[in-house]
Amino acid sequence: MQTPDIISATLAVLTFIGIIVALGLGVWSIRESRNWQKISYKDKLMSEVIDWALEVLKTWLSHTIIDLPTLEKATKDFKSIRSHQIIIMRNLEIELAVLENRGQYLQDMVSPLGNQLQNAFVDLMDSLYKDIASCAKYRKNFAKTRNVKDFTSLLNKWDEEKRHTYNETKCISRIIREATNIRTKGII
Asked: What's the pLDDT tens digit per position in 54-71?
């Protein structure tokens, strides 16, 4: 074999090795890119779940009921206070329904990610459904009241019922905890 043939054969082998290495790096790069996309998707989804859970909590806490001393002082303006409370109840009912719809979408999206998160979602969605029904019931009952005493009594019942949101807060905590666990599994 002559020197040019050896050089040509060596260059051919090196070119072939270079092509194999380039293909290997390309495949590795594609796999890594897909892994990062999966991690990024999970991270965004879990961020959305946490934001939604906090929005549910904020909605529950932000709708305050008229304080009873103010109500008792305003007996002359009973009808406007009653109308105002009915509007508050309707707004809360609508906000909770919107959150329930968004929660249903998120629940479907996270269902393959773990039973713990799914169970927390089911519990919170049940609570949301019950709260929407409760808002509708109290709103209708507020409209039927004819005097301050009945209205105050009904308002006290609603206020007492609303104070028992411990279960909802527990569900929200579970959702946030599980979403954070899922979120950090891919990173750590």
From this structure: 999 888 877 655 655 655
Note the pTM of the prediction, 2 decimals.
Answer: 0.71
Helix (H) or strand (E) holding 77: none
Give a yes or no: residue 3 inside a domain: no
Spatial CA neighbour of 93 closest among 63, 68, 67, 65: 63
Is residue 123 a part of any domain in this protein?
Answer: yes
CA atoms within 13 A on the CB side of 122: 7
Residue range(s) defining the domain that contains residue 106: 44-185
Q: Which residues of 96-130 are buried (b: 16+ CB within 10 A; e: fewer)?
A: bbebbeebeebbeebeebeeebeebbebbbebbee
Kindly state whether residue 176 falls inside one of the protein's structural domains.
yes
Number of domains observed in the structure of the chain: 1
User: In residues, how long is the chain?
Assistant: 188
109 within some domain: yes
Residue 46's CB is within 10 A of a number of other CB atoms, namely 24
Handedness of CA 89, 91, 94, 96 (dihedral sign): negative
Please state the rounded mean pLDDT for residues 140-156: 83
Name residue 38's amino acid.
Answer: K
